[in-house]
Fold:
Amino acid sequence: MSAEQSAGETPTAQTPVDITERATNPAPKPQEKNPKRVAAGKLVAERTRIARQQQKKAAAEASVIIANNNNAKQQPPPPDPAPTPAKEKSSPLTITQWLMVGSIVVGLAGIYYKREELKVRAKTFFGEKKRSDPDPAPAPQPKPKAFGMRD
Structure:
């Protein structure tokens, strides 16, 4: 049994295996949780809770502000006991708007000083194009007779 048995059989084939012990484990091991994941989950839950509290506070403040604005619109403003000092009045136009007004004024001034030249150009451009038929010649007028002269 020495050479033939060792070549054809394995050592596990000779030992009997008890399957019932594995299938019917009386006390299963509890599943272990990853402590890093547990800590991360707690951190996320805490942040979510804080964010909800802040949203509730902001909503409450907003509703108070809206209620105050609605009340202020409904009630007339109280009379001012003392006039406030006048603030310095700034220009109603900005710098860019002033520059635009200036450029328009300069453009109009240039047109005013070149008006004679522009009139000539307008006459050459718009004149004589509409008239295609020459006007008929006027009828000759009879000459008035002079007194005291013979014909």
